[in-house]
């Protein structure tokens, strides 16, 4: 069941096909997003990973629905993959190769099998796109949660980038032009970097921020089991650390692993956030034919009733 509208769907896909591999340079022009030689690993106290007790064990889908603050008028998009025919295409925007599958099951039913072929960058085939029910503006927030299963045979290797595009929040200018992505990426296997994930907001002054430490990889980016990922973004062109409203938070299995307070999630105060992109582009081409699995997607602008152990609102697990 899909609870969102798809207005402007093809415009987003076509436009993004041209612009996914690029970011603004500091002079306002565009350059290749394959900028691993220009990485600035941030180490300031405001963007250090907030460490909690690492998750352990297998994650299973909780019963019950997410709860939200009373009278919240925001929107909610939920997507599972229980209603379909195994092997048929899952309608996920650019996810032309995403299929209903019983290969691994989170809740006794199907999941979305996302596949890519060796050598392909695969925009239009790899991953998927979910449009926001309505655009979000300065001061708005979004929470996104889903489960992911990555087989041990799956190789994360992006020869021209150093990390794999993972959770991507598309922004656009008030005039409809590309405003750059909030781009959370998985570090390549055996990259040598002391991080598990990294983040960049494409746009003027773009810089990388490391998330978590490499010795936590088996717990925060595990293989051969389902694990739950959640992110929350507050949209602003001024970071919380500078008196603005912008932040990016990330949880794995309900444990906060990053509280990014010194990032700007918009490039300009009148920019809009419009869609979630899951994967969608493999820099340098995939190393082999391979698949991973996604299930139980929740995406909302409503404020969740749950809070984590530091008091931050999050979807978490039903109480």
Describe the protein.
The protein has a single domain, classed as Jelly Rolls (Sandwich). Helix content is 5%, strand content 33%. The chain has helices at residues 9-19, 217-220, and strands at 22-24, 30-32, 76-79, 99-101, 111-116, 128-136, 141-149, 163-172, 178-187, 197-201, 209-211, 226-234, 247-252, 255-260, 272-278, 290-300. Strands 3, 4, 5, 7, 12, 13, 14 and 16 form an eight-stranded antiparallel beta sheet that branches. A six-stranded antiparallel beta sheet has the order 6-15-8-9-10-11.
The class by helix and strand makeup works out as mainly beta
Number of strands: 16
What is the first-to-last residue Cα distance? Answer: 24 Å
Q: In terms of quaternary structure, what is this?
A: single chain
Biggest sheet, open or closed, and with what strands and sense?
8 strands, antiparallel
Q: So how many helices? A: 2
Rg to the nearest angstrom?
A: 18 Å
- Helical content stands at under 10%
Mass-distribution shape: globular
**Average pLDDT level:** 84
Q: How do the SSEs run, as a string of H and E? A: HEEEEEEEEEEEHEEEEE
Q: What's the number of domains?
A: 1
Extract low-pLDDT stretches.
1-59
Shape-level CATH architecture? Sandwich
């Amino acid at each position: 069941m899909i609870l969102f509208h798809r207005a402007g769907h093809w415009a987003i896909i076509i436009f993004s096909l041209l612009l996914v591999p690029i970011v603004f340079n500091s002079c306002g022009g565009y350059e290749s997003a394959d900028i691993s030689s220009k990485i600035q690993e941030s180490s300031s106290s405001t963007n250090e990973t907030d460490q909690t007790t690492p998750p352990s064990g297998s994650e299973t889908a909780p019963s019950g629905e997410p709860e939200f603050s009373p009278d919240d008028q925001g929107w909610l998009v939920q997507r599972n993959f229980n209603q379909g025919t195994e092997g048929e295409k899952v309608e996920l925007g650019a996810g032309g190769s995403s299929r209903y599958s019983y290969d691994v099951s989170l809740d006794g039913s199907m999941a979305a099998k996302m596949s890519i072929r060796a050598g392909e960058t695969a925009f239009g085939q790899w991953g998927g796109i979910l449009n926001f029910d309505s655009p979000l503006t300065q001061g708005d927030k979004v929470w996104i949660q889903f489960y992911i299963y990555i087989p041990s045979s799956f190789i994360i290797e992006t020869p021209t980038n150093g990390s794999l595009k993972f959770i991507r929040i598309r922004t656009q200018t008030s005039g409809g032009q590309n405003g750059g992505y909030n781009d959370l990426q998985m570090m390549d296997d055996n990259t040598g970097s002391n991080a598990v994930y990294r983040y960049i907001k494409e746009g003027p002054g773009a810089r990388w921020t490391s998330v978590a430490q490499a010795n936590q990889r088996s717990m925060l980016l595990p293989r051969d089991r389902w694990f739950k990922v959640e992110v929350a973004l507050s949209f602003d062109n001024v970071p919380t650390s500078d008196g603005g409203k912008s932040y990016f938070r990330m949880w794995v299995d309900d444990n906060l692993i990053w509280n990014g307070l010194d990032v700007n999630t918009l490039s300009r105060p009148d920019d809009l956030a419009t869609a979630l992109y899951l994967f969608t582009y493999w820099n340098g081409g995939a190393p082999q034919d391979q698949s991973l699995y996604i299930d139980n997607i929740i995406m909302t602008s409503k404020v969740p009733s749950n809070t984590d152990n530091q008091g931050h609102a999050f979807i978490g697990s039903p109480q």
